[in-house]
């Protein structure tokens, strides 16, 4: 494969000039093409891991150097750029002489590997569909076709193909802000004309125009444009550059021909091709801004597009994507001592601090979007989109491990270990590396970038990872990198991996039995309404447990109580319900009364043997405890189901006894 022209990737095109100012001297010797060869006049250095290509002028500052690269022409004594696809590429080196610019022959170099991390910004996927890679390495394009907007979509600005935006007040609020930035929340049109007969009406031929954009391993960044006017249809294909070097002000350049715009705009703007402002790009809305340059004076003209699929079938408006979540005012978790938490190992009977912990992926959901839900007081939640079209399954979870270690160095070679440091060893299909790291207030920063996983268009590659959750008692650690921001530029969405602590996950199997003393079990009737077997009541004297402080129910664990009840005279056919009463607000528990409230967590009591089972599953997302504020009580329905289990004075009838057969957690 030979790629002669590829998209100019702004986020990866880095122009690195020499530290000294470039100088041009007419005293410099003339050169010809034969003199401008690689290794003599210039050098080409390639980093195969990142696809970073560095070009350096070896002739000295007397010559002004120019380079023809796959990303276009640029000047500088030293230039660097990166390319996402493997293949053979060409560069040409040129210098200015008294007779004009002289270029040498093209030099061909090879990039052996793809580096799709260069396409990791979601704008690439939204604008041009990103890429998919088959098992044999074949790169598959995912074309996106944009058509002129025909109605209002969600919270986005605009309701038709074109709208107007003041260059002197981009927020249209009197602030005088003239800095037009990317994102719907960063600008407001001062006039949305909708469809106008003198402008663009709903029957205008332009409404049948299309712009299809995609990434191709041979052609680069491609735009296929069908422009329909009153004179007919024009079709052409061009390449384009997406410049993301300034994430607040991205631009798109069309290399041959113009972007898609209406016939009405001919002569209104002098530029429809170079450094076009990209001011919104979601999976369903695309908006460009061009500056009006005719006699009417400068003004931003905003060109609005929607995905073709949405115009053909509005019911396809996405409902499960992370971009649709209304989130704001995020609050990152804080830890009193993150280092201690990261190295805490929780066992069945005790916890201890270790100098090493190994994290493995949660194979059921190795990654997902972790977002700030602003409802109520706000909290962080999983998007639960793993396995969907926008968060495809990840096949490398079982081969992943991240070992965090605390070590010491003997700095003076005197046998005394001092100067502790942290070292992380990562093993997974994408990246195997050992590097040191530091622990911040709520983050882990490695000395070198690590790739934790890649799936579909998601690549989790960074040096710094935010610790979104660190709960040794639940054997869970969640690490994330930013994936979205609110209007105040606060990160409110993370691409996150869910990790388990291997040492605990690989421990005891089967249920854990909790010990207690039936002599300390409380048995009584509550307000002639229901029987209670009370294991623990922090406001009373009953405490069946040998050590209530060790009773912890981790996330998603279930506590099961098998009990026996003797001496109750049940009516024929009675099927009393049993409730594991817990007094834990996070579980939404409420006490039963007057025969109601038994539909929370219940089982049917087997009256033939007098034995029954009650369960409680922890659905709070974290460990719950009971000592001090909780309680553990079995409420057994009797209202209308028994033949007088209580005496006239309200006391328990003689001969009624309760027993806890077993209490287990799994």
Describe the protein.
The longest helix has 7 residues. With 666 residues, the chain is mainly β. The chain has an eight-stranded antiparallel beta barrel with strand order 12-14-15-16-17-18-19-20. An eight-stranded antiparallel β-barrel has the order 23-26-27-28-29-30-31-32. Strand 21 and strand 22 form a beta hairpin. The protein has four helices and 43 strands.
Task: Sum this structure up briefly.
The chain has 666 residues and is mainly beta. It is built from 4 helices and 43 strands. The strands form 9 sheets. The chain has an 8-stranded antiparallel β-barrel. Strands 23-26-27-28-29-30-31-32 form an 8-stranded antiparallel barrel.
Largest sheet: 8 strands, antiparallel, barrel
Strand order of the largest sheet: 12-14-15-16-17-18-19-20
Distance between the termini: 56 Å
**Class inferred from helices and paired strands:** mainly beta
Q: How many β-strand stretches?
A: 43
């Amino acid at each position: 494969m030979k790629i002669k022209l590829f998209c100019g990737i702004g986020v990866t095109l880095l122009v690195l000039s020499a530290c000294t100012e470039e100088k041009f001297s007419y005293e410099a010797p003339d050169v010809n093409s034969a003199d401008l060869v690689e290794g003599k006049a210039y050098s080409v250095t390639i980093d195969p891991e990142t696809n970073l290509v560095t070009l350096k002028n070896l002739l000295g500052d007397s010559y002004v150097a120019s380079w023809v690269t796959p990303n276009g022409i640029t000047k500088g004594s030293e230039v660097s750029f990166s390319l996402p696809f493997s293949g053979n590429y060409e560069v040409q080196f040129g210098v200015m002489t008294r007779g004009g610019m002289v270029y040498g022959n093209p030099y061909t170099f090879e990039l052996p590997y793809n580096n799709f991390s260069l396409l990791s910004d979601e704008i690439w996927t939204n604008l041009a569909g990103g890429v998919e890679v088959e098992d044999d390495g074949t790169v598959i394009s995912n074309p996106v076709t944009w058509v002129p907007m025909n109605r209002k979509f969600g919270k986005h600005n605009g309701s038709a193909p074109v709208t107007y935006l003041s260059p002197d007040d981009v927020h249209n609020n009197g602030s005088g802000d003239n800095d037009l930035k990317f994102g719907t929340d960063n600008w407001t049109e001062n006039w949305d004309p909708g469809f106008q007969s003198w402008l663009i009406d709903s029957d205008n031929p332009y409404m049948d125009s299309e712009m299809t954009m995609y990434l191709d391993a041979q052609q680069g960044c491609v735009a296929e444009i069908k422009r329909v006017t009153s004179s007919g249809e024009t079709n052409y294909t061009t390449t384009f550059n997406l410049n993301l070097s300034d994430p607040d002000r991205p631009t798109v350049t069309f290399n041959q021909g113009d972007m898609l715009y209406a016939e009405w705009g001919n002569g209104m703007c002098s530029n429809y091709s170079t450094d076009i402002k990209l001011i919104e790009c979601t999976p369903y809305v695309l908006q460009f801004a061009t500056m009006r340059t005719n006699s009417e004076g400068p003004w931003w003209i905003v060109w609005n597009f929607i995905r073709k699929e949405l115009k053909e079938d509005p019911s396809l408006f996405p409902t499960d994507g992370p971009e649709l979540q209304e989130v704001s005012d995020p609050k990152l978790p804080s830890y009193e001592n993150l280092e201690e938490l990261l190295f805490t190992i929780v066992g069945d009977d005790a916890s201890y601090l270790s100098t090493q912990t190994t994290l493995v992926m949660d194979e059921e959901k190795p990654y997902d979007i972790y977002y700030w839900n602003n409802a109520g007081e706000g909290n962080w939640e999983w998007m639960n989109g793993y396995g969907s079209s926008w968060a495809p399954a990840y096949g490398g979870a079982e081969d992943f491990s991240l070992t965090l270690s605390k070590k010491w160095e003997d700095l003076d070679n005197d046998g005394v270990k001092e100067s502790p440091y942290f070292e992380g060893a990562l093993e997974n299909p994408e990246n195997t590396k050992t590097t040191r790291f530091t622990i911040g207030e709520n983050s882990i920063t490695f000395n070198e970038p690590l790739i934790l996983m890649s799936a579909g268009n998601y690549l989790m590659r960074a040096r710094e990872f935010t610790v979104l959750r660190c709960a040794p008692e639940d054997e869970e650690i969640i690490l994330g990198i930013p994936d979205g921001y609110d209007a105040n530029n606060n990160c409110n969405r993370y691409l996150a991996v869910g990790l388990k602590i291997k040492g605990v996950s690989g421990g005891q199997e089967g249920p854990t039995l909790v010990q207690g003393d039936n002599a300390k079990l409380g048995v009584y009737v509550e307000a002639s309404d229901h029987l209670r077997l009370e294991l623990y009541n922090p406001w009373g004297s009953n405490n069946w447990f040998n050590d209530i402080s060790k009773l912890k129910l981790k996330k998603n664990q279930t506590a099961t109580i098998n009990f026996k009840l003797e001496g109750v005279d049940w009516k024929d056919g009675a099927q009393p319900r049993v409730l594991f009463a817990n007094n834990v607000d996070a579980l939404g528990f409420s006490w039963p009364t007057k025969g109601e409230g038994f539909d929370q967590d219940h089982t049917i009591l087997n009256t033939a043997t007098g034995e029954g089972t009650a369960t409680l599953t922890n659905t709070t997302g974290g460990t719950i405890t009971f000592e001090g504020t909780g309680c553990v009580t079995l409420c057994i329905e009797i209202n209308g189901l028994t033949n007088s289990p209580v005496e006239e004075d309200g006391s328990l009838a003689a001969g009624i006894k309760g027993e806890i057969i077993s209490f287990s957690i799994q």
